[in-house]
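User: For my dataset I need records formatted as: sequence, then structure tokens, nothing else. Please produce one.
Assistant:
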Amino acid sequence: MGRALIVIGIVLLILGLLVTLGEKLPIRLGRLPGDIVIRSRNTTFYFPLVTSLLLSALLSLVVWLIGRR
């Protein structure tokens, strides 16, 4: 249980840093190549396909590392 809480805390820390420093990073989540953006006169629709795949892979890795014990 302690190890899981430490890993979750580290993940939250990294996510917090990404949100805080997101505009200064060369790669911005939600704006990766492969993310779908549809713009019209009045609306903009974002579908972060590649960002979703990347986050899914990272979360799968974290869950695998936690359950590996």
